[in-house]
Specification:
Elements lengths: L7 H25 L9 E4 L1 H9 L6 H6 L9 E4 L15 H33 L1
Antiparallel strand pairs: 1-2
């Protein structure tokens, strides 16, 4: 079998897409709990986890860092946002307008990720011709 790192960037983009899908679910859950007393909004962190993984690499170039990244450990992390903050008397900290903006922002990010994955596969196809 040929040992190649040609899919490393695609693997990272795949993990980013998974985190984006998880974030869509978290935002939808926040919106559905807008009237639930005591509910605290949740969000997903992927960029921070990815930056941390790259920062702790001993390699210099981005290609080397990506090649040696432990993809299995790279994933989006769900966290409760502003757990002690609430501007409402019922303890809920969800603002539906903010959630809709976050959802739109995440959709734009997902379009960029899927576009990048498509580009990577087009590059592979052009090499195979």
């Amino acid at each position: 079998m040929i040992n190649t790192d040609v899919f490393n960037y695609i693997d990272v983009l795949h993990k980013a897409a998974d985190a984006g899908a998880l974030r869509n679910k978290a935002i939808a859950n926040n919106i559905s709990n807008v009237d639930t007393p005591g509910y605290k909004r949740q969000d997903v962190s992927f960029a921070t986890e990815f930056e941390r993984a790259l920062r702790h690499s001993r390699f210099k170039s981005l290609d080397e860092k990506i090649d040696n990244l432990n993809i299995g450990r790279l994933k989006g992390r769900v966290y409760t946002d502003a757990i002690s903050y609430s501007y409402r008397l019922d303890g809920n900290n969800v603002d539906v307008d903010t959630e809709n903006v976050e959802l739109a922002s995440n959709q734009i990010l997902m379009e960029g990720i899927t576009g990048s994955i498509t580009s990577e596969f087009k590059n592979l196809m052009s090499v195979c011709k």
